[in-house]
Known about the structure:
The complex is a heterodimer. Chain A is of the alpha/beta class. Chain A contains nine helices and 14 strands. Chain A has an eight-stranded mixed beta sheet with strand order 3-2-4-5-1-10-11-14, sandwiched between helices. In chain A, strands 7-6-8-9-12-13 form a six-stranded mixed beta sheet, sandwiched between helices. Chain A is globular, with a radius of gyration of 23 Å. By secondary structure, chain B is an alpha/beta fold. In chain B, the strands form two sheets. Chain B has an eight-stranded mixed beta sheet with strand order 3-2-4-5-1-10-11-14, sandwiched between helices. A six-stranded mixed beta sheet of chain B has the order 7-6-8-9-12-13. In chain B, a hairpin with a 2-residue loop joins strand 10 and strand 11. The longest helix of chain B has 12 residues. In chain B, about 50% of the residues are buried. Classes of the chains: A alpha/beta, B alpha/beta. Chains A and B meet through helix 4 of A and helix 4 of B.
Amino acid sequence: xxxxxxxxxxxxxxxxxxxxxxxxxxxxxxxxxxxxxxxxxxxxxxxxxxxxxxxxxxxxxxxxxxxxxxxxxxxxxxxxxxxxxxxxxxxxxxxxxxxxxxxxxxxxxxxxxxxxxxxxxxxxxxxxxxxxxxxxxxxxxxxxxxxxxxxxxxxxxxxxxxxxxxxxxxxxxxxxxxxxxxxxxxxxxxxxxxxxxxxxxxxxxxxxxxxxxxxxxxxxxxxxxxxxxxxxxxxxxxxxxxxxxxxxxxxxxxxxxxxxxxxxxxxxxxxxxxxxxxxxxxxx
Amino acid sequence: xxxxxxxxxxxxxxxxxxxxxxxxxxxxxxxxxxxxxxxxxxxxxxxxxxxxxxxxxxxxxxxxxxxxxxxxxxxxxxxxxxxxxxxxxxxxxxxxxxxxxxxxxxxxxxxxxxxxxxxxxxxxxxxxxxxxxxxxxxxxxxxxxxxxxxxxxxxxxxxxxxxxxxxxxxxxxxxxxxxxxxxxxxxxxxxxxxxxxxxxxxxxxxxxxxxxxxxxxxxxxxxxxxxxxxxxxxxxxxxxxxxxxxx
Lengths: 284, 247
């Protein structure tokens, strides 16, 4: 049952700066292991909104990737051979939203099979929130309001619960369901943490925010608690730190431009004059 | 009375400034200020589509919508809400995604219940195809047969002026698909129960057709269509008649 290949699941990752999001984005690019990784977003779970697609393109475009997105809602106008496009990627990123809708729409379009094929071909598959839980046998959705158990693709064994300490109601439901046997054992993932699976086995957990962790959740017999209960084990996670770009090429350019403008302002010379151009040359 | 109005294309989604089809379905509710619920599921609940719906229906109706992607907000009891409507209006987009999501949320069953309870159902494009037993859908490139909800025991094609869809509809009929109806943009099929009772149009030239297999042939019959606008002399009128009328 377990999936071949690499699946990287995050408990919460936004396509923006700060709060550990940068470090997670960097890490995904590292995992994609290519000089200019082709990375494709599947924003299906939230109905393919343009703003999510734009921030994804910006986030991974900034990191020397070749980002793309496939909308299963706009295939009439954005014609693409889905299977061929997915197989040509270094990484596929599944966005968050409604896990129920995600699974239903993928089933209708046969996307689950195509993703399995991508995994077999060595494409890194990542996802956050609904896009993380969908790989497991079970997840916990809150997109209908109250937390509910929902079946996933089952490529990874057990269950998963995202936004773990960020949404106490979801965690409470998860612990109770695992205790009572309604959900299988699994992992709880805080926002800005993630777990990497290789051939169905969890090989590493990472955290990009100081207090955030990944938790192993299993049920156990507890005599004192009068019956079944769930235990939570905090897993040791590797800390991810975002390396702010040093004075790289872009920074130097901007610095240079500022100096040039300052020099011009000081001398009051137009850039059209020969002297002005010499001034620019001197700053090089 | 069980009623469905299936647009080949048109209404506020496609005919900005031409409210003829939307006014027609509102009229069928027999209520001065009908409760209208919009289901934008086939578009992934696109925000811009919701805005256009509310802009078009804010006067003279009680508009609402159900988002199945953001259920934590808005209507909590979708079944009670849908059953309390006069009109349920289904937007266009991806038929496969629409059916997948509806089935996952049990909306397919609720819509049948609403239909049987007398709520008028309508929609365009994917929102037309969904009501039939089989849909000829060209949304995803190749024109394919899709099993839809089956409230109407016929097949259906939309945007029928597109030659690929016509060719595909004929091919599928010859391969055993049950007979059915096709509508061009601006034409709408009104069903009472299973029966087609009227074809109306928001554009004088819009047409609809009945299609059936007869042995090795497909019979395509153009249906009488009532233009909902002010009757004008059609541009295609033969010159001699035009002259006679002018005289």
